Input
Amino acid sequence: MKILSREDLRTRLKRREISPVYLLFGAETYLRDLAAKTIADFVFKNNEARDFNEDEFSLNQSENLTYALASAEQLPMIAPKRLIRIVDVKVSQTGNKDTLKEDFETVLTSYLKNPSETSVVIFVADELDKRRRMAKLLIENSVAVEFARLDENNLTKWAKDKLKDAGAKYDENALRHLTALVGNDVRRLTNEIEKLVTAAMPEKIISYELVESLVPNSRELTNFVLTDQLIAKNKAGSLEILKKILDDGAEPLMLLGLIAHNFRRIFMAKELIKQGVERPEVVRIMKLQPKFHEEFLKTARRTDETYLKKVFQKLSQTDLAIKTSIGGGKDGARMQIEMLVCELVK
Output
């Protein structure tokens, strides 16, 4: 069965087409969760005994899949349909984090081949490797909808719509600055807009200065957190943050430049501290933001100079590899960054 986009799902719901089984997955979890709520609202459009006919089961307890499907087989109470939401669904690349296990393939197949006509079952997946057998089973026997990250144009449109709904006024500079600071995380963008609207009461005028004062730069923060994890030699934490940054669309070569920039600044701050320069002067010379300078200076003090020399050597080697045939294209460049991180946490 074809995997639908969120626009396809919206079209179907506008036509009041409700399917017996849905699979919602993808990197944009806020819109995924919003879609699950929207489907539920359509099922109970007249609020028909919703409390008696809506259940949620987490697959963090594997036996809950059996209970969920059994619940879906029950007849609704004083309503046309029941709604069963199955959350914490994971079919991972390696299988190590699976919560939808192949042990339950028989019971799942049995339900999917003959789903209840009086229930709507929504699988909400946090991780879904489409190559795995259980993932294919769900995709082929449900209305599967993938929620990809929004591109810049759609992210801006989302922000404009949310601001309009809140009755807020804004200028284009403020809007561009907001989306640049937040990145393509719709959940956080929505939260930041709500915070800005509240702070702008009663006029509800969102200015560039208000955005600058209230919205932290998540991209800068994430890049520095990665550097901090590398210095701490936390391999699992470093790789987890690296994956998030790359999955969010950062180019490997650009990320390499940011890592190098962070380490150069740490080296410079360390040299200033070693020369006896007072802390306020270090902050001024390095142009450190108030919200980051405490952690930055702590990191600079504890970073070993021998480690910094190793870092700069490895950064240079990785830069050369990415810019030549050694890198092997986009996937190869990503692999080079991953190899660099593994080297730096040894």
User: Anything to note?
Assistant: DSSP finds 17 helices and seven strands in the chain. The first strand starts at residue 21 and ends at 25. The mean pLDDT is 86.
